[in-house]
Structures are given as structure tokens and as C-alpha cells.
Amino acid sequence: MPAIRGFDAPESFEILAASPEAALRAVESVICVPTFKRPDLLEKTLRSLAAQQGGHDVAIIVVENEGSERAGAARAQELLASGLFKGFVIVEPRQGNCKAYNAAWRCALTRLPALKQVLGIDDDEEAEPQWLDAFLRAAQSAPAQLFGGSVAPRFEDATRAWLSAHPVFRSHYSVSGEVPILYSSANYLIRREVLERLGFPFLDESFDFTGGGDSDFFRRARAAGFRFWWVQEAAMRETMPARRSEFGWILARGLRNGAISAQIERRLDPSPRGRLKVLAKSLALLAASAPRGLALGIRTRSATIGLYHAKVALGRLISEFGVQNEQYRKPEKN
């Protein structure tokens, strides 16, 4: 394995349980599952992975991101011992979404010598039976190194299912093929060479509690010359608790999305001229949010959905004053 920039720093994670080394030696694909205080949902996630079609040899890394009670790790250890899956159960005690993914990807690169790609699913998602097969088939044939798949919301409050048309719950693409970039790590496959090129830490941990570490990672990958592919058939379902259908949560997510986009753009050009360009874009988006929002509201028959573009523009402007919405500070309430 080539030396990866940043791996000279000590590992921050602890391995609680692992399959025998011989069972993992030839594994080319690993699925990373970060978890935080959701053991029951995590078990559903892992059972959906165990039910994948295609007979592929795959390992799973469950990374517990809650350092004291470790309920998810305990559940995962039981399922690993029962033979439901093979792989690792690790703990990254430093709370943060980016820290958890960094730990999982580092564990994969250093413990699986035949590794070709990492895949990911969150602990509130369940993969459709053809999910893994669809991704691996695409990775074998498509001229790309980063792949994304569709995520469909499943609302616990069925009366709120109409919100599935809202941009915060919709996938960015709906047709398989090459795409300019990906935006979310909720459903992905990343070839090994991307991680090796970008170096460790793979995700910028300053995004731990605001979100956006994945968007920043994908932008850096694009700048490095890597290509992106959408695999609509690599589908999964995401459980949406009742709190995510409340106006306050949706407002916070829209403001957060706007703030993240502006923050990443400012990083690309931190000069005064660059910051002025970002501010000008934010003001232009605010001006355009009225007609865009009206069109979206009419199309979806919802004023709540129609307000989304204005929320994003306001989030961008608020971020100019250093205001950050740390929606992931308490993941159990997200």
C-alpha cells in the first residue's frame, strides 16, 4: 500500500471486535456505517446489508461515535458474533460526523489489503436488495471514481409524506449516468485511489457539527480531476422521524444548506475579491428566490416547500457574519 499523507498521525479509534484476518484478506469492498445512539435503527441497517443480492464478498465497518454508553457498538458486536456480517466494530470517541467517517475509511485502508472501494450508508437508512450489486456493477464499467445513489424518505408520520417533494428530502439526480459532482455522503461508493490522492484526514473535521464535510470533500475530488457517476438503481430508504417534518427543522436545514454552500465557495477564493463575489451571488439568489419559490410552491402545491430557495439565500447571507447552524451538535435531535 502506498504511503498515505497524514497516516503518520496516531489513530484515534479503538477496535472493539473484528472478524478473523483470514476472512478479510481478499475483501475488495467495505461498507462503512457510522452510528450514534440509534441501536434499533442500526440493526435494521445491518440486516438490510445482510440481505443484499449478488453474492458479493463484502465487509462492514460499524463506527460508534458515542464514546460512553456505546449502545450501537454493543448491538453491532452481537450481530457480528452471530454471523450476520463480517468486518469490524470500532469506536471513534471524538464526536463528529467527519471524525467518524475518517476513522472508518482509515480502518478500511489499513486493515483490508485487497481493498478497491469504500461504500457508505447511515444508521437511519436501509439498502434495497439490489443496492450493492448496482454500485459494484457501475464501478466496474463506468469511467468514474465517485458514485452516488438515490435515497427515498420514509416518514414515520405518514400524513407528512407530501414533504418528499421538498428539496431537503430529494436526491439531486434521478437518472443514471455521469454527473458534474455529488453533494451527500448518505449513499456512496468511492474508489480507493480517491482517498489515497486526497490524503488524511479525508473529511475536513471543521464541518463536524455544521455538515458540509462531504460537499467539501467532493469539491476537492473534482479539483483533483476525479469524475462522478449517478447510479439510480443503488437505492435506499431513509427513516424520517416526526421532528424532521416540523417547520423549525426544515427551516434550520435550509439555512444550513445555504451557509455551507457559501462557506465552501469562500474557501475556494478567500481573497477580498472572492468574498465579494460570494456576497454578490448570495444577494442575486435572494432576489431570485421570490420567482423561483413561487414556481416551486405552485408545482408542489405547498408554500412550505416554496420557501426553500429564500431559506438557502438567507443562510448564505447570515453566514457572512460568522453565524453557523450546528445542526449536528446533538445528532439524536437531528
What's the number of domains?
A: 2
- Whole-number radius of gyration? 20 Å
* Secondary-structure element pattern, one letter each: EHEHEHEHEEHEEEHHEHHHH
Morphology? globular
By DSSP (H or I, 4+ residues per run), the number of helices equals 11
The assigned structural class equals alpha/beta
CATH architecture of the largest domain: Alpha-Beta Complex
Give unreliable regions as ranges.
Answer: none
Classified by CATH, the class of the largest domain is Alpha Beta
Overall pLDDT? 94
Number of DSSP-assigned strands: 10
Span between termini: 38 Å
Content of β-strand: 15-25%
What is the name of the CATH superfamily of the largest domain? Answer: Spore Coat Polysaccharide Biosynthesis Protein SpsA, Chain A
Give the helix level as a range of percent. Answer: 40-55%
CATH topology of the largest domain: Spore Coat Polysaccharide Biosynthesis Protein SpsA, Chain A
| Largest sheet report | 10 strands, mixed
